[in-house]
DNA sequence: ACGGGTCCGACT
DNA sequence: TAGTCGGAC
């Protein structure tokens, strides 16, 4: 449960963007003939036409639902087009959808801090962008307002149905006497409309969005008008919205907690929660959940947009329902091999593209067992340090499985392994990789080291230059990789093996030194400090309070000043409206190659100053890490790169990270300047509260909760 | 005997 | 910490 920040006057601008039936859209882009037709994506066509995992809005009109079987959907909608999920290694392969999701994230992350919430959803913190717009180009001064903005739904606006809806939206957007918080939301609506249009132009995907003062309300709103629409929740509409909102509609309350609220407390709407004191809720649901509920009832949530563009883990799994259950070790091994191969491939991609390393391998399975006293026992999960290389992962996964199976079967040990057994069956298997952290390129000496190989002599100076051109560096010295990427194209790596040694060794040190992030629970008299206790060396947490003079945001906003100019540029293609965008596309045509569509940056942001301009192109500052870059053309198999991992791992007694276990000889092999930094890391570090809070400390102060 | 395959976060 | 569990898409 996210920490709720009891900020009653939250003036952030948060957006939630939700792709419309995303998998369907991905398939429709691949196969444009399917556009406009009732379509669904199914996987595993074998049994009853496969299971639907995404349904187009055309198909939904016929009553087709997710979780129908393909055959079932044909019954209610005979003309439905069913597209199969790609299969690789005998299992569903979602990589095309993951990649499509990344395309979207890379666009949405241009205007502010961006959090990849799932394969097809993101949160954006547009506060700074909206502030800037309000200061420099508030809606009132705009002569022309984009169609897409006028089509926003504004909750609580009395004429939502009237024919003059657009006119009333326009009035709301431009109200001069409005609450400042609502003015900011209005700016957010402009920014989001533009981003959604940009997504459409560059990817052909439509999405819906919600704009509100916090994540949970934005999320709620984004689902209210779909597809291809956006919904704003003005501050003054929150109470009215929540009063009548069925409790289970709220994120996090759709499951057992929502059930309990209904049956145990008789709470049917979010508004009903208002009757209960915080203490009462805490008493029943615990201190965290209780406080969270109390706040949610009031539309309050301090959950922050994280600034993370990449997933935190990778997994690959498959179910083997009923009769297909695996009953021999050999078959388990076979499937583990398939799953591990996929996982390994994705890990290798992540390493190549994002310079990240996963540290933990986890095996999950479900199983059944016949006639045993505790046949209901769950199959335990097992994990171990992750060694790179497909074969290693396969080997380790199998060991984990066997350990888990022994535990699962208990005293009841199976003797026969070769052939069928009658005691147990495996109904699902999955392997996943977690604790994925960037390889440490941010530390000064390593950056220097790289830079040295770029034939820049003065290391200190070059470091500074890099920092200036790259991303603002959080004081903790672990940041995103913009700087690496800046130089990447030219780098001759100084021997990949050496580098990997450095990385792994540094990772271990960090691993040891990182204390787990503590949940900071709000107490009324407290100052809010988020969850930032020990962000020091953690995987770069974004600065929550990056300074107001972020060049990136500043720069992108003048584009809104040039609203009209931009309109003209776009107008040539017809209109800004998303619906009209599609009308203008000849459905019989092959999809346009969008790579060649003119970059809107060029249209809207004529060069200001060269230095700044280049920054705006690299506008990832709010975000922890970069999106995957183009796939390197060279094949990324299990290369020699992995070899050095293993050497290193073996020497250290690889099964637990202990700082004492780091082989000093590894360090000795490193270049001198890195050695030095290394030893500094090993020494007790004092980076506790050096986190720069920036000028807006006030941001962290809370009004005392009244009443 | 499940929508399947993944992700995430809290709790202990 | 590793492992479990719940929730969501």
Automatic annotation (TrEMBL):
Supply the Pfam families for this chain.
IMS, IMS_C, POLH-Rev1_HhH
- Which reaction does this chain catalyze? DNA(n) + a 2'-deoxyribonucleoside 5'-triphosphate = DNA(n+1) + diphosphate
Question: What are the GO cellular component annotations?
Answer: nucleus; replication fork; site of double-strand break
What are this entry's molecular-function GO terms? damaged DNA binding; DNA-directed DNA polymerase activity; metal ion binding
Can the keyword Kinase be found in this entry's annotation? no
Keyword Nucleus appears in the UniProt entry: yes
Q: Where in the cell is it found?
A: Nucleus
Q: Where is this region: Disordered?
A: 604-640
Identify the residues that the record assigns to the UmuC domain, covering every copy: 14-254
Q: Which SUPFAM superfamilies match?
A: DNA/RNA polymerases (SSF56672), Lesion bypass DNA polymerase (Y-family), little finger domain (SSF100879)
Enumerate the UniProt keywords alphabetically: DNA damage, DNA repair, Magnesium, Metal-binding, Nucleotidyltransferase, Nucleus, Transferase
Polar residues bias locations: 611-622
| Enzyme Commission no | 2.7.7.7
Which cofactors is this protein said to need?
Mg(2+); Mn(2+)
Bias (Basic and acidic residues): 623-634
Family as reported in the entry's similarity comment: Belongs to the DNA polymerase type-Y family.
Identification of the protein by name: DNA polymerase eta
- Organism encoding this protein: Prunus avium
């Amino acid at each position: 449960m996210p920490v709720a920040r009891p900020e009653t006057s939250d003036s952030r601008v948060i957006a939630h963007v939700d792709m419309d039936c995303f998998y369907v859209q991905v398939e429709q882009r691949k196969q444009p003939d399917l556009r406009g037709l009732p379509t669904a994506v199914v996987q595993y066509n074998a049994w009853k036409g496969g299971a639907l995992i995404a349904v187009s809005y055309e198909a939904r009109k016929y009553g087709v639902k997710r979780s129908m079987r393909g055959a079932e959907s044909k019954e209610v909608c005979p003309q439905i087009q069913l597209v199969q999920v790609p299969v690789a290694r005998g299992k569903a392969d979602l990589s095309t959808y993951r990649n499509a999701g990344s395309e979207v994230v890379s666009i949405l992350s241009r205007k502010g801090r961006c959090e990849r919430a799932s394969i097809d959803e993101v949160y954006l913190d547009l506060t700074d962008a909206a502030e800037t717009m309000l200061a420099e180009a508030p809606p009132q001064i705009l002569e022309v307002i984009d169609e897409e903005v006028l089509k926003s739904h504004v909750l609580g606006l009395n004429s939502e149905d009237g024919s003059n809806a657009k006119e009333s939206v326009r009035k709301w957007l431009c109200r001069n006497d409005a609450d400042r918080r609502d003015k900011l939301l209005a700016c957010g609506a402009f920014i989001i409309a533009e981003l959604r249009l940009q997504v459409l132009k560059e990817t052909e995907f439509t999405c819906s969005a919600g704009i509100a003062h916090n994540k949970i309300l934005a999320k709620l709103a984004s689902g209210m008008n779909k597809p291809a629409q956006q919904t704003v929740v003005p501050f003054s509409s929150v109470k009215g919205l929540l009063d009548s909102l069925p409790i289970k509609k709220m994120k996090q309350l759709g499951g057992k907690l929502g059930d309990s609220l209904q049956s145990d407390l008789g709470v049917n709407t979010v508004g009903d929660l208002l009757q209960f004191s915080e203490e009462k809720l805490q008493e029943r649901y615990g201190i965290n959940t209780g406080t969270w509920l109390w706040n949610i009832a009031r539309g309050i949530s301090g959950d922050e947009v994280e600034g993370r563009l990449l997933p935190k883990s990778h997994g690959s799994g498959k179910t083997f329902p009923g009769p297909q259950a695996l009953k021999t070790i050999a078959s388990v091994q076979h499937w583990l091999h398939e799953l591990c191969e996929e996982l390994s491939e994705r890990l290798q991609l992540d390493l190549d593209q994002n310079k990240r390393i996963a540290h933990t391998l986890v095996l999950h399975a479900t199983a059944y067992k016949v006639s045993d006293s505790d046949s209901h026992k769950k199959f335990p999960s097992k994990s171990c340090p992750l060694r790179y290389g497909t074969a290693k992962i396969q080997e380790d996964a199998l060991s984990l499985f066997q350990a888990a199976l022994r535990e699962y079967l208990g005293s009841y040990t199976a003797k026969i392994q070769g052939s069928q057994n009658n005691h147990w069956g495996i109904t699902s298997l999955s392997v996943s990789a977690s604790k994925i952290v960037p390889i440490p390129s941010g530390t000064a000496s390593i950056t220097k080291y790289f830079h040295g190989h770029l034939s820049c002599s003065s290391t200190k100076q070059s470091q500074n230059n890099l920092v200036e051109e790259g991303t603002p560096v959080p004081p903790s010295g672990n940041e995103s990789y913009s700087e690496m990427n800046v130089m990447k194209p030219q780098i001759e790596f100084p021997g990949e093996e050496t580098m990997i040694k450095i990385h792994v060794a540094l990772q271990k040190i960090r691993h040891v030194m990182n204390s787990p992030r503590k949940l900071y629970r709000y107490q009324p008299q407290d100052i809010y400090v988020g969850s930032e206790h020990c962000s020091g060396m953690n995987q770069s947490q974004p600065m929550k309070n990056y300074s107001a003079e972020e060049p990136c945001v500043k720069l992108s906003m003048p584009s809104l000043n040039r609203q009209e100019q931009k309109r003209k540029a776009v107008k040539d293609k017809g209109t800004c409206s998303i619906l009209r965008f599609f009308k203008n596309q000849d459905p019989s045509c092959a999809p346009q190659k969008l790579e060649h569509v003119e970059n809107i940056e060029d249209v809207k942001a004529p060069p200001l100053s060269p230095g700044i301009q280049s920054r705006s192109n690299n506008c990832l500052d709010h975000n922890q890490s970069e999106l995957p870059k183009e796939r390197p053309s060279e094949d990324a198999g299990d290369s020699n790169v992995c070899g050095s991992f293993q050497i290193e791992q073996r020497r250290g007694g690889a099964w637990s990270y202990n700082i004492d276990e780091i082989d000093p000889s590894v360090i000795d092999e490193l270049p001198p300047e890195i050695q030095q930094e290394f030893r500094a890391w090993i020494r007790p570090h004092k980076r506790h509260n050096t986190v720069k809070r920036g000028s807006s400390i006030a941001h962290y102060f809370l009004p005392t909760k009244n009443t």
